[in-house]
Amino acid sequence: MIDNSSLEHKGADKDVQLLVPANDVADPELSIVIPALNEELTIAHFVDWCMQGLERAGIKGEVLIIDSSTDATADIAVAKGARVLKTPKRGLGRAYIDAIPFIRGQYVLMGDADCTYDFRELGPFMESFRKGYEYVMGSRFKGSIEKNAMPPHHRYFGTPLTTWMLNILYGSRFSDIHCGMRGITIDALRRMRLESQSWQYASEMIIKSIHMGLRTTEVPVLFYKDMEGRESHLKRGGWWMPWFAGWITLEIMLTWGADFFLLRPGFVMFLVGGLGVAALFNGPVQLAGIGFSLHWMLLFLLLFVVGIQLFMMGNLARALYGCEDGRRPWQKLFRFGPAVLVASLLAIAGILSLLPLAREYVAGNYRLPSVLSDASFHAVAGIGLILWSFTHFTFSMVYNAAVLVMKRPGSGPLRVPARPQEA
Predict the structure, then answer these.
(1) 271 and 197 fall within a common domain
(2) Who wins on pLDDT, 327 or 112?
């Protein structure tokens, strides 16, 4: 007998209700978490596939369907042994956010309820989890794709292009960023703090896994065409929906691309400008027949200062991303104590570099010499050091304020409540 009563959960959204089957599993190791919208044609087959996959892999697991349907999807899923979380229709990404308080497994496997991904094959995901991987991406290109399962412009253009772009922007090596079948530990999922309400949640997950420094791998998956009589949600949305999904994917990739647009170019400009200023500190130099003098030094100073600004803005962007960033090697320098120390040392060094020119200025009856001396080059370097000192101190104060705000309960991105106890 099925117990299809609605159970309210403390700490969960008041618009969300949980339906629990009579043969519910206690203390699952794996949670298969799947959004569904009017999938009564496929949901019975899908839950059966999941149960077969759990049995084959020898895993104690649960199937949790996040359902916003107007058809019989929920009733069929519960009858087949799945938990069903009834939610309002408010986006694919939001479905996963709603589900987090109800997930009981240590590991989470995501996907679609349309029987396009083969959930009878769960072994590669569990093997990866047990090896210590925190984020396991499925790859259709490393597995197999049934004929006509992907439109040609998806298979040969859209997916390879956006995957290549993400790999370039973030220095990653994914082969299929749009694969819907993916796994993550529940700890990493909670720390990730998903924000995206729609299709872009998939790109957000990948990007945050990189920023958080999660241990990541890919496994091959089997991808099938839609069952006869079923139309995919992309097709239901109209011919423009795939292009819109691609556009919002591009938007989130660029929005979260501080490393590519700020940190990396900023560090290169800082390094080139700093080396140039240092090389000219004691006066003009000749290199490969080219003369470098004060005007070159001013150009290097400009690169140096702009590089500092870009690099620091990149670090601020990382602080505002709303996830635990596992790749912040510089953050210790921005804490109050180190920031004051670094800024003070830079300011002192800058003032000392300005003193020779100040002495010439006083000795010349408060007029600068018409002929460039080494003191002029020292002074340019000193100005750079003072600018760096001021920028480092003021940025550190803003950076620490931003970090405090992001850590404040109820501030920043959507917070994930702890898993509530069942009523």
Answers:
(1) no
(2) 112
